[in-house]
Amino acid sequence: MQYSIHRNLNLLKRITSLCNLRLNSGRIIGNLLGARVDTYGSAREPQRAARHSKNVYGGARRQIGRNHRMKLTIAIEGCCHGELDKIYATLQLLEKREGKKIDLLICCGDFQAVRNLDDLETMACPPKYRSMQTFYKYYSGERVAPFPTVFIGGNHEAANHLWELYYGGWAAPNIYFLGFAGAVKFGGLRIAGLSGIYKQHDYMRGHHEKLPYTDNTMRSVYHIRDFEVYRLLQLQQPIDIFLSHDWPAGIARYGNTEQLLSRKAFLRSEIETGTLGSPPAAQLLAELRPAYWFSAHLHTKFAALVEHSPPPQQQQQQQQPRHSGAAAREFAAVRPTGQPSESADADDAVAAAPRLGTSGTTAEHGDGGGGGGGGRGGGTASSSSRGGFSATRFLALDKCLPGREFLQVIEVEAPQLLGEPELQYDEEWLAILRSTHHLTNLDFKHHALPGMGGLRSGPQPEDVVFVRQTLAARGTSRVPDNFVVTAESYNPALGQRHGRMPQRHQRNPQTVALMDMLGLPYNLDHNDARGKGPPGTAPSRPGCVPLSLAAQTQRGRPQPQPQAVAAAAPLPCNPEEIDLGDLDADEADEQQQEREQGQQELGGDRLIGTDGS
């Protein structure tokens, strides 16, 4: 499937799979091999929302072709904000009206997996905006998600709950959290994601936040860290779908910028200076080159197309990467000339977009403008030997409110499977978890990562072998249905109005089971030294060479040190949205965190430095 930027019918006939994203009366209308899909989004009126999709057809039957592929229907949702009842009701009505089976729902953050009033105390927003919403019904078993749901975290979450599932796991039956960073497979599709949002002052810190949270750590806990980005950079095989909450830096330059500014005029200064978005996300976009990238956070719909410059090896071979995922077929990367007119839709605007280079900066615009991230580790990390796609289709969606475009239904092709598609472990990601486990940092102070965090060596071979043998012994790579209730669910009948801040993190049996399967010690307890080991130390199992040592021995010389991630200016106030208190005063927060962390560590075995280095 491909977001076409052309209207030429002859060109469309030559493209084997395409999805025309058009702005038509507030809708995105798609065309995939004769099947139309709409963006719709009336959270208050599911019936009206379903009428928006009256042109949807062809999705009820899973047609398996000669290439043994079947179509999966996937719903993408922007910011959930706990409105599961409304989202599920809209999709169920669509299924009923159109006979269109939804195989998977993907949510791009601000999921708000709040189990009870105590969880609500850990969510970063002013108390007057805290609301239980409806997730607790699915957690308690009162309701069951009608189709598999995969989500990442945003900047308004029950942080204590998600920390239990740091490596990913079932937040409720049939609702899977991808983890702070993670990758899974569904129906043969490879889905990866990064939870949280970017803040420069917390990016190079460990996950020092422990219960009870302060006003500052309640916010910093959802700020992404270089460790998770480093782990994702180790992925070698192509990614079909990547998820992030905030947008990759510079992505606004690859779509209809003027149309975006007509809805979000307050973003103009950041777009013009190239500071809108996350530099680490832009780094991952340039290095991983996924087929599709979905985001949320800015509460607006925005489509873009990023064409990647072919790696040197592919330029020589004159071929594009292939794999068994949904986007294995080649994309037609035809770039028309000329600028789009004022009446052109969001996807026509990508015709004038520059290409992203493999080094994490734009190939045609050396300054990058944030487009490639200029990120740490974005250097020449041999992306030429990695998989990836010639173009990435980006789409951001709104939040679940009446009349807002918060849902997109798409059809993609996946390898044929026996029976219904199911959530499966990703072998390469499990191997990466093993290879990087010893680098976990629960300190406030930064621990150096191999190659300054930019080394893309992939998992250790022995860890790949271990994972394959382990999954073979299990007889399946299917993620087990091992959801366990770890906190009392909210009961509205009790009339309770306020909760209390939890005092300590719980060990979730799912996380313990995953660590046991991988032969790794549990390392998420802040009072456990296993999460605070010095950087570069060997893991507790034999036969694994630390990545930092491996980097020094490759070719007999140290690897080049990429540039550090550039600062991203704080987002200005959005006059169109409710202020949920997620805009940090960076310097004040950093100083306050240093004071708090110093007080916490004074009574410990050693004093952890607070210089942020």
* End-to-end gap: 44 Å
Number of strands: 16
What structural class is derived from the secondary structure elements?
A: alpha/beta
Low-confidence stretches: 1-67, 318-385, 533-572, 575-591, 600-613
The proportion of residues forming helix, as a percent range, comes to 10-25%
The outline comes out as: globular
Strand order of the largest sheet: 1-2-3-15-4-5-6-8-7
Strand % is 5-15%
Rg, Cα atoms, Å: 23 Å
Total helical segments: 18
Main sheet summary: 9 strands, mixed
**What's the rounded overall pLDDT mean?**
73
Please give a structural write-up.
The chain has helices spanning about 10-15, 45-50, 85-100, 115-120, 135-140, 160-165, 200-205, 215-220, 225-235, 255-265, 270-275, 280-290, 310-315, 425-435, 460-475, 510-515, 545-555, 585-600; strands at about 20-25, 25-30, 35-40, 70-75, 105, 150, 170, 175, 180-185, 190-195, 240-245, 290-295, 300-305, 390-395, 405-415, 425. It has about 625 residues and is of the alpha/beta class. A hairpin with a 2-residue loop joins strand 2 and strand 3 (about 35-40).
Draw up the topology in text.
Blueprint: H1 9-14, E1 22-24, E2 27-32, E3 35-40, H2 46-51, E4 69-77, H3 84-98, E5 104-107, H4 117-120, H5 135-140, E6 149-151, H6 159-164, E7 169-172, E8 175-177, E9 181-186, E10 189-194, H7 200-203, H8 217-220, H9 226-233, E11 241-244, H10 257-263, H11 268-273, H12 279-288, E12 292-295, E13 302-307, H13 312-317, E14 391-396, E15 407-415, E16 423-425, H14 427-436, H15 461-474, H16 509-517, H17 547-553, H18 586-602
Parallel strand pairs: 4-5, 5-6, 6-8, 10-11, 11-12, 12-14
Antiparallel strand pairs: 1-2, 2-3, 3-15, 4-15, 7-8, 9-10, 9-16, 13-14
